## 1
Amino acid sequence: MSIFYIIAGLLLLVVGGEFLVRSSVGLSFKLKLSKIIIGMTVVSFATSAPELIVSLNAALEGHPDLALSNVIGSNIANIALVLGVTALIFPLAIDKDFYKMNWPMMMILSIVLYLFLWDDLMLSRIEGGILFLSLIIFVVVMIKMSRDKNLVSDEVDESLSETSNFKIIAWLIIGGFALWGGSELLVNGAVDIAAKLGVSERVIGVTMVALGTSVPELAASVIAALRQEKAISLGNLIGSNIFNIASVLGLTAIITPIKVVDSRLLSSDIFWMLAISLVLLPLVFFPKKLVMTRVKGLVLLGGYIAFIYLSYKQLS
């Protein structure tokens, strides 16, 4: 039954995330927001909804390790797995904003998260507020830069501009219930499997739960790569990592402080997240500049396989 709960939970999270994105974008068009603002704020926040709901639900139900490991594992998966697999299918061109804004912000937030947790083994409400405030400042700066460059977001479906009010409300209700139900099933199934196998919630969270909440990004990236579309970029995936730390953990900590239960989150997992994030910079420039080639994708994918293997090997 635990496996069934996890599978059903993942399916509901995918469905809920899709409906939430559609309703959010449809509502944004009704409010006459520009495509770039919708893409950089509404879509990014909505696609982080599975991580947010799962982490918040886990923290409120007394499983803080699931909340933390979900975000740390998702950030590792977004880069090493999603980007790795996508680059293997079709090499990606990389925008200069990667090293000017996105990557530095991701690294700063990752390091700040580590320092906040290392200080007292807890992410407090004040620290959560600082993370969330930094996201607001970052988004404002990015929107201003995008307007100055007259950029238009490629990740917003123009057809949603004609969505009726009834559909927007229906999608919002369906998405909300699906995300809530999916998070309940996923958390309960993960906790039950951890108890039965004698595996820590941290390991389940950083692997199975994190992979599950990264399924929407993986599916969208693979489909886009197969179609040779440019809508999925390295910037989008890094943006997701930024939102995971600043929005998911930030908002969760504001509502309920998050404690570190398993010390290996700080002695192992978070260093994997930092290392994989850090290695992106040299990969982007060498040997082929501003192109994520298949060889680079293979390197990232190999890193993810090593991470998963070592996570479970520690238990034997």
## 2
Amino acid sequence: MFNGEYSHSIDSKGRITMPAKFREELGEECVVARGFEGCLSVYSMEEWQKLTDFLMGASEFQKEIRLMRRAILATAVTCSYDKQGRILISNELRTRGNLTKEVMIVGVGPKIELWDKETWEEFNDISDDELSALAEGILNGNRSKDGGI
């Protein structure tokens, strides 16, 4: 499970250093693909397999599935680390994620997100009141009988 956020620079060749903690959990290879809200998603091979199994197991007759397959699978790149613990982000993915210099590497449970630092700061600028309202809305229908999550 990935958590935490780290600020790193992406070099002119498109390489970014993954935090050691994340590299250990990702394993020898990872998959980078288009994400949501303007970020890129980084998956361990195990999580990537779960996602592709889901997408390939769904009906091709559903337009949403076809669109998701194209959007995510077509952009995916398998990456391995160089000796400095860096992965190479393709030009296409760097453009999609607007990754130019400062990158936020954010652990969000089963995957990692790569964000342009400025975009992340704007996107993640959520007040305590907004966070409380989100939590209340999400948790309202998902409480267990003993009152826990």
## 3
Amino acid sequence: MVKVPYVNLKEQHRLLRREILSAVDKSMKNCDFVLGSEVGKLEERFAKYCGTKYAVALNSGTDALFFALKACGVGAGDEVITSPNSFLATATATVALGAVPVFADVRSDMNIDPDQVRAKITSRTKAVIPVHLTGKAADMDPILEIARKHKLAVIEDAAQAIGTEYKGKRAGSFGHANAFSLHPLKTLNACGDGGILTTNDEKIASLIKQLRNIGLKDRIHSDVWGYNSRLDSLQAAFVNAKLPKVNSWISQRRKNAAFYAKNLSDVVICPCEETYERQAYHLFVIQADRRDELAEYLLKNGIETKIHYPIPIHLQKCAENLGYKLGDFPEVEKQSKMILSLPIHQYLTQKQLELVVKSIRKFYS
């Protein structure tokens, strides 16, 4: 029997039952199911939360990456530098445009190494996608400096980083266009799929609002060929009901992370936080010897864990045409054998946290 679930969506929606049912009722009464008032409300509130001028709601985080790249002029034959230890969607969005994902290795903190980014730039490089993996900010200052020098677009993959801060600014406010996921497993989540893009560029925001709506700029006229990537009004209503809670959820996740770090750092490698950052801890990823044995042991003791991600993108079968091989990214490959995501959600009890710690320490004793 599971004693410590990896996620607890049932508890989230039990506590928010009134707000969610109210959102459903309001949407049913208004009948503005597509690009309705709740979508506009979410875009305004989300932009304010991230500290950007604009936000555009879309039907997935993958589409947010795709449209960000497209709006920044990335197309067939262009190269986009990113890290290979991310979720597959980071590279998928690049491939969907006919561009080529070019991978760079990461630092010990699992985020892309700016020095490796610099080494990968060619005459075909058009953009760089730093991934704020696990809710820890990539080191943006050197990445932005490199991008300015080489005239590259910067697109933050902030799918796991709602509320993450770097030197006083929130994730999703650094790049030309930036992508968030509202997938049910994210800290701020819809009750289905969803995504949102942030930008300070009015032209980018305007273009993406057309692209998501079949290219229409009104009900009749279209200046561009577009797509169908409209976030349902009902999903926007769900996210609007949850957004006021997100800071308290992140605060609790940070408390959970601090407890883990205090009690586990002498037996496994725990995430570290620099003085200039505030991690949101979408994930709490340890690096552990005998990782697979540990995961099996924890599950036998009722503790669910996950691996984000066991196979780096460059070693996936779909990436064979890119020409990478085992050994090309030593840090990513080493970490992929050691990483293990512990339960970190905001509904963990002190008893559950103590059970996780006790079990890990017992395994290594």
